[in-house]
Amino acid sequence: MTDQLIIFDTTLRDGEQSPGASMTRDEKLRIARQLERLKVDVIEAGFPASSNGDFEAVQAIANAIKDSTVCGLSRANDRDISRAADALAGAARARIHTFIATSPLHMEKKLRMTPEQVLEQAKLAVRFARNKVADVEFSPEDGYRSDVDFLCRVLEAVIAEGATTINVPDTVGYAVPELYGHFIKTLRERIPNSDKAIWSVHCHNDLGMAVANSLAGVKIGGARQVECTINGLGERAGNCSLEEIVMAVKTRKDYFGLELNIDTQHIVAASRMVSQTTGFVVQPNKAVVGANAFAHASGIHQDGVLKARDTYEIMRAEDVGWTANKIVLGKLSGRNAFKQRLQDLGVSMDSEADLNAAFLRFKELADRKAEIFDEDILALVSAEQQSNVDEQFSFVSLAQHSETGEQPKARIVFTMHGKEVVGESGGNGPVDASLKAIESLVKSGAEMVLYSVNAISGSTESQGEVTVRLQNAGRVVNGVGADPDIVVASAKAYLGALNKLHSQTERVAAQG
Ligand SMILES: [Zn+2]
Questions:
Q1: Cα 450 to middle of ligand 1, angstroms
Q2: What pLDDT digit, counting tens, does each position of 50-77 carry?
Q3: CA of 57 to the centre of ligand 1 (A)
Q4: 145, 284, 304, 314 - which has most CB atoms within 10 Å?
Q5: 479 and 346 in one domain?
Q6: Domain tally for the chain?
Q7: Has residue 308 been placed in a domain?
């Protein structure tokens, strides 16, 4: 057992599986680079056999990332494992993560296999994966609800086949901390070759205990890898949150006694990047990355904080990358100042052309908004990356009229399949009229399942950031738009969602 806790981030795989959180290859690559900056030990980049898009994303990440291990998920069969190995061929350090369900319910209902068949397939899969790469992780899906005797047999067998990491998922978020911790401990004590592998925890947050369960798995069970996601992104109530695990282990080092590689100063930037890319907004009272997470921002305790910082604060806001809202740039700022600010924010642009395009957007924004904050710059970069997707629909201009006692009307100009078009409509309000004007031409038939507006930097002078979630034929996508005018931001978000709806491809469902 080492004193190092391995942080395995699965934002791009398990997190991305959350309906509406799907990301393009470029978006994933950008988040992977941020995870590398954060010094995450392992980046689970995707599930290569699930779709060509996922294969390409994993491949691009494997080729670009040098400092973190890049991992690909695969079911326990040769085809999946070969696809993962192919996608990971360019990685500096590659890991194959293979899984098969071991709980009675999953084996019987989902796999329609006997326990003996599952055991045999798990062994063959790990053996096959070990012939491809040296670093192989095995997960018994729904492990926590599996029969402990059977699980011991499976795990002992896959370690003997060469699995280097054993991950025990609480796939459905059913565990409670003490029991889960002892479950891991029992497995490690009963399995004769358990010391040949690193033990890992993977918890879901259905009962709000993913972080607590993971920490119990570490403290009681002796696990030395935690699987987690930025902002706790994930299906249903989400996964274990990376920022909470990291800051708990750091802040309470007196108790956990573990070392981490994570460079915590990049946490807030990673959180913003993930929320802006997916449209999954972070609640204000979210630990570590919520807007109210630190006492000095909430007002109530300000007096105490001013007198003595540790009256109310157990962590320093700047240690996780919070900087005070300050005017960083304005209308007169040049390209170099803009580039420098991007670098300070940890944002790297893929090319000079991308930088120039982002700078142009910045100038346009600075013409309309006197003070540009870091949040504005990050939103602008996100918009720039979103527009790199093969854009079927893009915003040009908008006029709308609303007056008490009259029906609001909107007239919008946008490009559709490369051609400029004009849509007009009335609606219940200016936003409704604008989106109906778009829909009158696009006719997507999509149902809107979520609409939310958020002030990027707090006041009415800030940009509005709008998230639109659309559902069509079983697919769910999110679009995000930012603009000082919330009606324009709404139209951009709607067009962004339509683009995603248009480009999203079908894929196989992965492990929970
Ligand atoms: Zn999961």
A1: 24
A2: 999 999 999 999 999 999 999 999 999 9
A3: 19
A4: 145
A5: no
A6: 3
A7: no
Confirm whether residue 204 is marked as ligand binding: yes
Q: What is the CATH number of the domain that holds 458?
A: 3.30.160.270
Query: What pLDDT digit, counting tens, does each position of 253-307 carry?
Result: 999 999 999 999 999 989 988 998 888 889 889 999 998 888 655 444 445 555 5
* Same domain membership, residue 258 and residue 401: no
Taking the C-alpha atoms of residue 436 and residue 169, their distance in angstroms, rounded to an integer, is: 44
Q: Binding site annotation covers 296?
A: no
Q: Indicate the residue among 335, 364, 386 that finishes a domain.
A: 386
Domain contains 303:
no
Assigned token pair, 98: 């293979």
Here the tokens at position 326 are 């300050």
Q: In a 3-state reduction of DSSP, which class is residue 432?
A: helix
Distance 75 CA to ligand 1 centre (A): 14
**135 labelled as ligand-binding?**
no
C-alpha to C-alpha distance for 505 and 52, rounded to whole angstroms: 9
- In the reported structure, the alpha carbon of residue 295 is separated from the centroid of ligand 1 by a whole-number distance in angstroms of 32
Q: Answer yes or no: do 71 and 137 share one domain.
A: yes
Ligand 1 centroid to 174 CA: how many Å?
12
- Closest to 224 in 3D by CA, of 490, 465, 3: 3
Query: Does 371 lie in the same domain as 249?
Result: no
Shared domain for 226 and 354, answered yes or no, is no
* Distance from chain centroid for Cα 396: 30
Which residue in 345, 368, 342 sits closest to 356, CA to CA?
342
Residue 377's domain comprises 327-386
Query: What is the distance in A from the centroid of ligand 1 to the CA of 239?
Result: 7
Q: Kindly give the distance from the C-alpha atom of residue 137 to the centroid of ligand 1, in angstroms, as a whole number.
A: 14
Token couple for 369:
């908004």
Q: What is the pLDDT of residues 185-200, one digit of tens each?
A: 999 999 999 999 999 9
Q: If you measure from the C-alpha of residue 47 to the centroid of ligand 1, how many angstroms do you get, rounded to a whole number?
A: 12
Domain presence at residue 304: no
Amino acid at 90: G
Is residue 202 a known part of a binding site? yes
Residue that terminates a domain, selected from 386, 415, 433:
386
pTM: 0.86
